[in-house]
Amino acid sequence: MNTLFDNLPLPGLSTTDRLPSAVPPRDDLSTGRPAGDPLGTARDDVTDPVERARRRAGLSAGGSGRPDEAALLEGLNPQQRAAVVHTGGPLLIVAGAGSGKTRVLTNRIAHLLATGRARPGEILAITFTNKAAAEMRERVEHLVGPDARRMWVSTFHSACVRILRKEHATLGLRSSFSIYDAADSQRLMTLVCRQLDLDPKKYPPKTFSRKVSDLKNELVDPEDYAATVSSANSFDSALAQAYTLYNQRLRQAHALDFDDLIMVTVNMLQAFPAVAEHYRRRFRHVLVDEYQDTNHAQYVLVRELAGVDRDADGAGDRDGLPPAELTVVGDADQSIYAFRGATIRNILEFEEDYPSATTILLEQNYRSTQNILSAANAVISRNPGRRAKNLWTDSGEGPLVVGYVADSEHEEARFIAEEIDRLAAADGTRPGDVAVFYRTNAQSRALEEVMVRTGIPYKVVGGTRFYERKEIKDAVAYLRAVANPDDAVNLRRILNVPKRGLGDRAEAMIAAHAERERVSFGAAIADAAAEPGATREGRPVPEVLGLATRARTQVRAFHQLMEDLRAMDAAGARPAEVLDAALDRSGYLAELRASEDPQDATRVENLAELHAVAAEFSEQDAEGGLGDFLERVSLVADSDQIPDAAGQEAGQVTLMTVHTAKGLEFPVVFVTGMEDGTFPHQRSLTEEDQLSEERRLAYVALTRARQRLYLSRAAVRTAWGMPQELPASRFLDDIPGSLLDWRRAESSMDTLRGRAGSGFRAAGTGYRSGEGRPDGRRAPARSGPVRTGKLESTGARLGSATPRADVPGLDLGDKVTHDSYGVGTVVGLEGAGSSAVAKIDFGGGQVKRLLLRYSPVTKL
Ligand SMILES: Nc1ncnc2c1ncn2[C@@H]1O[C@H](COP(=O)(O)OP(=O)(O)OP(=O)(O)O)[C@@H](O)[C@H]1O
Ligand SMILES: [Mg+2]
């Protein structure tokens, strides 16, 4: 089998190999921990920043670095303990939700270090999200001191990027290679299909993109795939062609797509035994959380890294090294990523794959009350072919699970908002204690509307993500093209953005030149920009045919701009500075500022936010260059936007899909849209496998709740603009009636409906949609239109990192005018210089935080 980068010419570029700090721990995570909870696995209740700092200082001053071994075992049950202290062969911990799997994994790492069985550098721990990784690292670091930084705790993708950045030369890959997200990959696939003259109706690039992703997750390379295709099948052979060309284009662009990160790493470890040996010598302990959601490529990666031979009875003695100690934890009932190629097989057959494995079952649940657990068990027990589990809790029965049938999705949202208020009044529940789940992102809109109207602070995790916004993708494309001059997808994206007279025709001419001369698109731009008769390395630069004189001048200016930005980067400018220069000198920012479209004003704010993210990145990692920053941007996932302990204290209800909620817990959980056709999803109703996956998803949803669980549904839901009557979710039917407290059941609704007509509203709710709140609460300034998690927290940190406000010419109370928002009053000032931010009240509840560099205001 060929590796992806066979035959790649060695670019011979500088190999300044800055090791990326795989998601450095956030400052606000390094908090003190409540006594009696050495790992801080319980909620962190220290809200006072001074107290936090004191504890932190106290700890580092104490600085022994070696926690008491006994303290690490305290409070654990016998099975958990056995898992923590286990030595030797592979260890599988399988257990239901909330039984302490993640906690055991964390304690096990700390225990390995505390007992001296492992040095931090020998540990590789894989978590499902960057955020989970940061938390785990921080908890271990808290125990063993800064030495723990040498551990690798990260997601599969981050770990692979880190390896690839180190080993790029082996692959003939530029160290600043680009990472293409799903949208970039699809764009590239569209270009490829166009080049192959494939009819997009018959061969949709989107479908091809997905298929290629599936193939990569199965470690099937283009050649392997082509070999399986019978020439009679035109779809498959078109796909094989497209896959081949797509990979060639990636290679030319020095780019990897998301699935490549894993596949290329696996291929490299298999093709270069010396590289594999290096990592096997280094990582003597490999630990994987959420193992049920690994796909085939990840499965093989774990094997390669741990150095376990498949047929060698678990004692594969590769490179003369005994295999690493492998610990995996998971729950087959929570496998919810089959659509991304995850296979439960990896957990179900672990014992077969690793015959010397020890299996430990955990049966006590520490998260939820018995009623919640019983409801979740009732749902999951209907899945065929699962191993029965006996999960119990001693935390008492708790309140019944609350059921609610709403007229519509709007009324469902209203019920939730009222209930959140009621709980706040009754027992001091804070918005940060509450999560609202839905099956698909589209369902968040009705919920958001009510949150805005009722003034409940909230945060949407996922959805249209910050980094998927057009203006952010444009800006990042500039940065990527600066870091990697061969990055065709990103160069093509910005070639005519903002418009500079380099339209489709010019782009096609440059692409054709690249094709003819067998050079990258970036190199073709350089050719087009060359003066007539210019030479390069003693040879005349080939002419780019078909470019009008005006286009030629424009290409020259564009190329010069990019080269200038590259020079800035090479001279050590910070990512935020390169960003500012790119947006200024390209005219991008000026164009947005000049626009009358209010959306463009929001775009300017989003770009300002990106500037803040970049500035914050440099604050955390002064050495970090553009490549490191872009890597961080590439690896941000939905779930990384979930508020951390600090965010939760700040008090925002979290709205998210069930998929994103995996591994998390909240005191109060609302699961919405419990309808057949919504949850379970319409698509799954006829397919048994898919229905089983939906059931596991429901199990994940229900088991996130610690104390209170609400299950609601709408009798009529509008999807795709069409109101639809949907029957109750079959998962609701699975739950014994004795566990449910129907606040409003179907029958009572019918009665009330008959009485109140369609304008029905639940009795005693106090206010109607559109009315002001009785308590006069004001909608928070930043919820609603600005939907990214980053924004909220970055803003706060920007302020706290630079408490000194030094904004020349502005004072609190000044009247100012802004092109889009009109006249306002300065109500806050933060930061200084290019990071100066003014908080301005433009009246009508419109308070904006403006980065003045991006959104200048004029003092009146
Ligand atoms: N022995 C214990 N004593 C007290 N609390 C515990 C114990 N073990 C775990 N917990 C707590 O129980 C909760 C669930 O633990 P954890 O998140 O590790 O479970 P999990 O099995 O990883 O869950 P999931 O399957 O949802 O990922 C956490 O709040 C954790 O701190
Ligand atoms: Mg867990």
Write out key terms for the chains shown.
Rossmann fold, alpha/beta, six-stranded parallel β-sheet, 23 strands, 32 helices, 5 domains, binds magnesium ion, binds adenosine-5'-triphosphate, 860 residues
Output the radius of gyration.
28 Å
Instruction: Give the strand content.
Output: 5-15%
CATH topology of the largest domain: Rossmann fold
Class by helix and strand content? alpha/beta
Number of helices: 32
Overall helicity? 40-55%
Overall CATH architecture of the largest domain: 3-Layer(aba) Sandwich
Provide the number of structural domains: 5
Mean model confidence by pLDDT: 81
The first-to-last residue Cα distance is: 70 Å
CATH superfamily (homologous) name of the largest domain: P-loop containing nucleotide triphosphate hydrolases
**Could you give a short account of the major beta sheet?**
8 strands, mixed
Provide an overview of this structure:
The chain is α/β, with parallel strands linked by helices. The protein folds into 5 domains: 69-170 and 260-362, Rossmann fold, CATH 3.40.50; 178-253, Arc Repressor Mutant, subunit A; 370-462 and 641-754, P-loop containing nucleotide triphosphate hydrolases (Rossmann fold, 3-Layer(aba) Sandwich), CATH 3.40.50; 466-639, PCRA, domain 4 (Orthogonal Bundle), CATH 1.10.486.10; 814-859. It has 32 helices and 23 strands. Strands 9, 10, 11, 14, 15, 16, 17 and 18 form an 8-stranded mixed beta sheet that branches. Helix 3 (78-85) crosses helix 4 and helix 19 (470-483) packs across helix 20 (488-494). The termini are far apart. Residues 1-65, 310-316 and 754-803 have low confidence and may be disordered. Magnesium ion is lined by residues 101-102, 663.
